[in-house]
């Protein structure tokens, strides 16, 4: 078999691709096959310090540019990403194990859209003023300074671009720290940024793991702002480190989201929508609907149709356009998810479908799990209240609207949800009663980039998205001028 080409990654600091100070490396593994296809430098505080210094030095000049100039840079990056669309999709699919169709439709599409959208939004910003009888109050949105942008492995470039675009658009400079499990499209973004000639030091990137690179970055005294997306437990560590230094912080954390199905829903559309919500990206999206609450009178019909639909999904080669489900991100994660299925059985659950799929021999080294549906668990069970973050959905009955809301609100998380009913007033009423940051009615993951995005309770702190991103990545200042 011909030798696998192994890409050697490097950090991107002050407009140059540079080696890390240390000598530790980490294998980057294809989740679908277990093949090593890249090496990642395990950077440390020395590399972080160099990146933060570069960002600090570049920040005043970058912040002094006209808004329109920065917007033009965002458009230039969007254009270059668009030209690399297929490379983004292929790299993201290979690095995460997700199907190529998903990498195109969601990850690549949205990465370009994020830069394009925020270019337009910062251009349209209105300057605000508040008139008094004898004075005028001007609001000036100033940059915050140097930002740390820390991202997870499930939607690598989608989430990194979601942070980089508004952060630099509002005049900040940044140090990016992508997940050590999925560094490839972050590397591609640096090649794009280098290619368009963005001024050195505006965007920097340090590869590494949480302990070696993430933690020193968050703790660095010259970091003014942190935008973190990842697990709730990691979010706690990030917050604990940043709080005493009064850094501006946004945390997008875990979720355990309910899909609420009422008897008057459009059954065919609802089954399709709730399957997509439960299993998109192998269930590795914090917005996934992993708890399905079904009105008792239609529960049996729904359960039958839901399982049939799940079993029709094609699992296998991520590079095949017809594949619906790919591999899980890592062996550790696969074990964690399988552990929850075993726990569900101990907790009295019935596995209606799932287990290990049978796949061609070239994929035997991958992290594979068939989509799994579990019925009969109490809504208070661990499997129904803890985040599994895999292709596992639990089904539950409810008798009344009040009971459905009570079950939906019965977890430590509060990120998202969906409600399926033909009674739109009830859809809005139930949505508003849910303790989450967002709810979809008769759809899921239908995204308008202008809306607020974020969660409550253990799903995070703060909102990004549209003007909320502009607000987070800037410091609003008031200048009050007395009329003579
Ligand atoms: O998260 P981790 P993962 C959540 C999802 C799941 C988790 C999976 O709920 O639980 O993220 O992603 C870095 N200081 N969401 O495993 O381990 C780490 O290197 C600073 C929710 O990647 O938290 C990586 O780059 N950084 C989300 C990043 O943090 C540290 C959508 C995330 O790692 C660190 C996606 C430390 N001490 C995933 N330790 C949403 N709500 O939108 C690790 N890191």
Explain what this protein looks like in three dimensions.
- This protein has 484 residues and is an alpha/beta fold.
- It folds into 2 domains: 7-253 and 459-480, Aldehyde Dehydrogenase, Chain A, domain 1, CATH 3.40.605.10; 258-449, Aldehyde Dehydrogenase, Chain A, domain 2.
- It is 40% helix and 22% strand.
- It contains 15 helices and 23 strands.
- Strand 4 (25-29) and strand 5 form a beta hairpin.
- The model has no long low-confidence stretch (mean pLDDT 97).
- Ligand TXE binds at residues 150-154, 177-180, 209-210, 214-215, 218, 229-231, 234, 237-238, 252-255, 286, 387, 389, 415, 460.
Strand content: 15-25%
Sheet with the most strands, sense and barrel status? 7 strands, mixed
The total beta strand count reads 23
The CATH H-level homologous superfamily of the largest domain: Aldehyde Dehydrogenase, Chain A, domain 1
Rg on CA atoms, Å: 23 Å
C-alpha end-to-end distance:
83 Å
List the helices and strands and how they pair.
Elements: E1 7-8, E2 11-13, E3 16-18, E4 25-29, E5 36-41, H1 45-63, H2 67-83, H3 85-96, H4 100-124, E6 129-131, E7 135-143, E8 146-150, H5 156-169, E9 173-177, H6 184-196, E10 203-205, H7 210-219, E11 225-229, H8 232-242, E12 248-252, E13 257-261, H9 267-279, E14 289-295, H10 299-311, H11 331-346, E15 350-355, E16 370-375, H12 382-385, E17 392-398, H13 401-408, E18 413-414, E19 417-420, H14 424-433, E20 440-441, E21 456-457, E22 460-461, H15 466-472, E23 474-482
Parallel strand pairs: 1-5, 8-9, 8-11, 9-10, 11-12, 13-14, 13-19, 14-17, 16-17, 19-20
Antiparallel strand pairs: 2-3, 4-5, 6-7, 7-23, 12-22, 15-16, 18-21
Helix pairs in contact: 1-7, 2-4, 2-6, 3-4, 4-5, 9-10
The chain binds ligand TXE.
């Amino acid at each position: 078999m011909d030798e696998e080409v192994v890409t050697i990654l490097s950090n991107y600091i002050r407009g140059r691709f540079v080696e890390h100070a240390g000598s530790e490396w980490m294998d980057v593994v294809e989740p679908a096959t277990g093949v090593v296809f890249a090496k990642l430098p395990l950077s440390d505080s020395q590399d972080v310090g160099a990146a933060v210094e570069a960002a600090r030095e570049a920040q005043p000049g970058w912040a002094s540019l006209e808004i329109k100039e920065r917007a033009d840079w965002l458009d230039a990056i969007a254009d270059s990403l668009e030209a690399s669309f297929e490379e983004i999709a292929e790299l993201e699919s290979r690095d995460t194990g997700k199907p190529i169709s998903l990498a195109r439709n969601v990850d690549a599409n949205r990465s370009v859209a994020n830069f394009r959208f925020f270019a337009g939004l910062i251009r349209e910003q209105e300057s605000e003023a508040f008139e008094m009888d004898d004075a005028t109050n001007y609001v000036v949105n100033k940059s915050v300074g140097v930002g740390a942008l820390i991202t997870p492995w499930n939607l690598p470039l989608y989430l990194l671009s979601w942070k980089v675009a508004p952060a630099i658009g509002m005049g900040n400079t940044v140090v990016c720290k992508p997940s050590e499990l999925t560094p490839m499209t972050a590397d591609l973004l640096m090649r794009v940024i280098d290619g368009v000639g963005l001024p050195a030091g505006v965007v920097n990137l340090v590869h590494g793991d949480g302990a070696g690179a993430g933690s020193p970055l968050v703790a660095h005294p010259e970091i003014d702002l942190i935008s973190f997306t990842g697990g709730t437990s990691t979010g706690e560590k990030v917050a604990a480190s940043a709080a005493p230094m009064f850094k501006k912080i946004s945390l997008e954390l875990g979720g355990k989201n309910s899909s609420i199905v009422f008897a008057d829903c459009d059954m065919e559309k609802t089954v399709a929508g709730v399957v997509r919500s439960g299993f998109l990206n192998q269930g590795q999206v914090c917005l996934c609907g992993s708890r399905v609450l079904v009105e008792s009178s239609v529960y049996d019909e729904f359960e039958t149709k839901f399982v049939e639909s799940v079993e029709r999904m094609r699992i296998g080669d991520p590079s095949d356009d017809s594949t619906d489900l790919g591999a899980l991100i890592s062996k550790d994660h696969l074990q964690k998810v399988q552990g929850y299925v075993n726990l569900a059985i101990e907790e009295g659950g019935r596995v209606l479908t799932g287990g290990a799929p049978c796949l061609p021999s070239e994929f035997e080294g991958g992290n594979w799990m068939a989509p799994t549906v579990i019925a009969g668990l109490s809504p208070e069970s661990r499997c129904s209240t803890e985040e599994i973050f895999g292709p596992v959905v639990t089904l539950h009955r409810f008798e009344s609207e009040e009971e459905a809301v009570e079950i939906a609100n019965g977890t430590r998380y509060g990120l998202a949800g969906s409600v399926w009913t033909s009674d739109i007033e009830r859809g809005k009423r139930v949505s508003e009663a849910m303790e989450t940051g967002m709810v979809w009615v008769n759809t899921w993951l239908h995204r308008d980039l202008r809306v607020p995005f974020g969660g409550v309770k253990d799903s995070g702190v703060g909102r990004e998205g549209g003007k909320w991103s502009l607000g987070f990545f800037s410091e609003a200042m008031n200048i009050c001028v007395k009329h003579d």
